[in-house]
Design brief:
Blueprint: H1 5-18, H2 32-35, H3 39-46, H4 49-59, E1 63-66, H5 75-87, E2 91-96, H6 102-109, E3 114-118, H7 124-131, H8 135-148, E4 152-159, H9 167-180, E5 187-191, H10 206-218, E6 224-227, H11 232-235, E7 237-238, E8 245-250, E9 253-257, E10 259-262, E11 265-269
Parallel strand pairs: 1-2, 2-3, 3-4, 4-5, 5-6
Antiparallel strand pairs: 7-8, 8-9, 10-11
Length: 297
């Protein structure tokens, strides 16, 4: 890696904590075909930050997401791309496990507009056994994002049968979120399917996701969702004040859009005017589940 103080601090801390283990080598990876691929190494040598920013503009992308493998692994490249995107009015989104030391963390999130953080479980034993990582470091990142940045962030937890899906663990997790992050940080409970090195588990039953959502709502979290299943009622957003449907969703497909403009911001309930936490535009996108290849000359 380049001689960056932040990265070498990150590397040395990882080595101290985990010795010769692979960090965040999650045995249940749902995207191992991407995260274990070497294709990204080739991308860095072919696509300059300016090329990526201009490609986003050309095909109408409002943001660029930095994801598999975890973007903290290619922090310098991600930061350079993010600066180029900002120069062209394109925003930046981090999709990350949140496992990073304080010095590089500040550098990374200073150029991000939004983030989705995988909170993989809520016990140190789960992180140690299945992720070769530490829960505490991820919780520190979540608190940092909430209290020391303006980054809009959401949480995703993949629920794995008999590993991190107990009622007690979801209770502890959602109570911690309420106490440390507040009611407006959305959480997505997503379904596991057998993959990578965890083929002995069954797929997560929908009822497990629904139960987790009920617990989150009971504990005061306003925006709790299910994922990796088709269930519009539990993937849509409702006004926390009057209960009206604000944004209809089914997986990647948007339907209803009942937001209004008021007080110099978009994202108010059209029925009662209550502001909805988040960042919104006047009209919803219509991309859905489309995929479009991007080629760099």
């Amino acid at each position: 890696m380049p001689d960056s103080h932040g990265i070498y601090t990150l590397k040395s801390e990882y080595e101290k904590a985990n010795k010769n283990k692979d960090l965040l080598a999650c045995k249940f990876s749902q995207n191992h075909d991407i995260s274990k691929s070497r294709q990204f190494d080739k991308l860095q040598s072919k696509a300059t930050p300016e090329m990526i920013a201009k490609a986003a503009l050309k095909i109408g992308c409002r943001s660029v997401a930095y994801t598999y493998n975890d973007p903290v692994i290619f922090l310098e490249y991600a930061a350079d791309v993010a600066h180029a995107c900002h120069a062209h009015g394109v925003k930046n989104v981090a999709v990350t496990a949140g496992y990073i030391c304080p010095e590089p963390r500040h550098e990374f999130y200073s150029v991000m507009d939004a983030a989705n953080v995988d909170l993989k479980g809520f016990t140190e034993s789960f992180y140690k056994k299945l992720c070769t990582a530490e829960l505490g470091a991820v919780l520190d990142t979540l608190k940092y994002l909430k209290h020391e940045t303006d980054v809009w962030f959401e949480i995703t937890t993949l629920l794995i049968p008999d590993e991190n899906d107990s009622e007690a663990e979801i209770e502890d997790m959602t109570q911690w979120i309420m106490e440390n992050l507040g009611p407006d940080v959305p959480i997505h409970f997503t379904a596991f399917h057998p993959d990578w090195k965890m083929l002995d588990k069954v797929q997560t039953p929908p009822e497990t996701l629904l139960r987790a959502r009920r617990i989150a709502l009971k504990n005061g979290i306003r925006y709790a969702y299910t994922g990796n299943i088709h269930d519009k009622p539990t993937q849509s957003t409702y006004c926390h004040d009057c209960g009206k449907l604000l944004i209809g969703r089914d997986w990647h497909q948007l339907s209803e859009w009942n937001l209004s403009f008021s007080g110099n911001r978009y994202g108010n309930c059209r029925a009662c005017g209550t502001p909805l936490a988040g960042h919104f535009e006047e009209k919803p996108g219509d991309w859905g589940r489309k995929r479009q290849p991007v080629r760099f000359a």
